[in-house]
Amino acid sequence: MVVERAGGAADLARRGVEVRLVDRADSPFQGSRGDGLQPRTLEVFDDLGVIDAVLAAGRELPVMRAYFAGIFAGERRMAEPVEPTPDVPYPNAWVLGQSDTEAILRARLAELGVRVEFGTALVDVTQDDTGVTVTLHRDGTPETVRASYLVGADGGASAVRKRLGIAFDGSTDNSIKMLLGDVRADTLDHDYGYWFAAAADQPMTGFALSPLPGARRFQFAAPLADDRSPDLATLQDLADRHGPEAGLLLSDLSWITLWRPNIRLARRFRDGRVFLAGDAAHVHPPTGGQGLNTGVQDAYNLGWKLAAALGGHPAPLDTYEPERRTVAAGILGLSTELLDKLVDGDEDAMRRGPETRQLGITYRSPTDHGPLVAGDRAPDALLHDEAGRPLRLFDLFRGPHATLLRFAPATGAPDAELSARAASGRAGYAHSGIRTVDIRRVDTPTNGSADTDRPACTTLVDTDGHAFTAYAAVPGNHVLIRPDGHLAHRW
Ligand SMILES: Cc1cc2nc3c(=O)[nH]c(=O)nc-3n(C[C@H](O)[C@H](O)[C@H](O)COP(=O)(O)OP(=O)(O)OC[C@H]3O[C@@H](n4cnc5c(N)ncnc54)[C@H](O)[C@@H]3O)c2cc1C
Description:
This protein is an alpha+beta fold. The chain folds into 3 domains: 2-29 and 42-55 and 96-170 and 262-357, FAD/NAD(P)-binding domain (3-Layer(bba) Sandwich); 59-94 and 177-259, D-Amino Acid Oxidase, Chain A, domain 2 (2-Layer Sandwich); 382-490, Glutaredoxin, CATH 3.40.30.10. 25% of the residues lie in helices and 27% in strands. It contains 11 helices and 29 strands. It has a 7-stranded mixed beta sheet, with helices on one face. It has a 7-stranded mixed beta sheet with strand order 24-23-27-26-25-28-29. α1 packs parallel to α7 and α7 packs antiparallel against α8. The chain is globular and about 75 Å long. The two termini are 36 Å apart. The site of flavin-adenine dinucleotide (FAD) has 31 residues, from β2, β9, β18 and α7.
């Protein structure tokens, strides 16, 4: 098994899958790039066991101080902060530089016994009915690897995608350029973000500075109208021309790039035993902070399916492309719309709506209707165990298994676990194991089915009715949840 990025590799490793993660780069990427983590990604990180580290290292979205023609014009927010609710524990985007997020995922991967093999490039791939043969180069020395599957998460210029001849449909627009980099601006209060422009309806005239957690750095973002080189002198010139009246000194540039809209979607996400994930499958504008998040969720969708296939259940793999390509196409539409607003000088260009949080992503069939159906995100809920200790459903979902929720199961009811096992066997999660959770209403005495003969069964009391509400459940309902936190079946 060869996989190319840390989150997906960690998901595979915790399932006991033998995995290699190779990266052509000699060392980890250093730069803030994808610094906006969306709520759904935070939920994935909760499941992967890295949420505490991500929350400790990051910060909330900053309040932006707007200056027009050098004069302070007031404070704005990209999105109003939302209070957590029992079903949505992480409702707001979280800021963490991409290199910091990657370091946390690499550390988790190392705990699971896998190290990223830097300086190791994939140069060729062929496949047959039983596996994939990959040629790697390290220090000019070739190595041939035989693997069951390959995931090409090798970025927008993906060698894997090119070797497979998969079209990357979309466009590159050379008329728009954006300069992005990480700098210090020590005269500014680092608790705030800044937006400097000629006027509110001319966002393409100035630049923005977003504070990065951890150090006194800001991510600098500016549209560039000419062919100047991406360096500190160019950033300083933009700051001198569009910055605050009091002046602004930039220093200590640690990463810079010149970005051009390159908005593309791979025509296929799969060829036989080879899969594409992340920017290899879809490249987005940075507007809306969607690219990294979408890639993380590709890998999360794929991990349990690869494990199932290796366990003898290849059917779930067939759902990877239809599920994730549909999602990626929708998200590309969203981030492109936000870029267009910026270019058009829309007053709302910096506002971010709930659709950017990715909590509404669903794999439901278009013919399915109802508040919560197969394919939808499985909500969290705060309950209590029978000793009165608080417990979240996400605490019970955490790990590689599927989960069966039984809402107020009646004594002597036909064994739902058997039905769930049959359904999950067909769908391929039997390999991941199923954890059974009985959810009892607070006014219903225990029915004795809290099974001493089933040690895997946990009984929870729905003290405030959060679980019944979030799942639109009535007594006797059952909900089977996939290992990646989406509903598989309900009955
Ligand atoms: C300025 C900027 C701001 C952004 N802001 C956000 C944001 O706020 N939120 C968000 O979600 N996204 C954002 N993004 C997008 C995000 O950075 C990307 O979507 C993300 O980096 C994609 O991750 P990836 O692993 O798929 O690809 P990459 O990060 O491109 O990584 C690909 C890896 O594959 C390796 N590789 C390439 N070829 C080979 C080979 N032949 N063999 C072995 N290894 C190879 C590379 O060395 C690299 O390490 C932003 C992007 C930019 C440029």
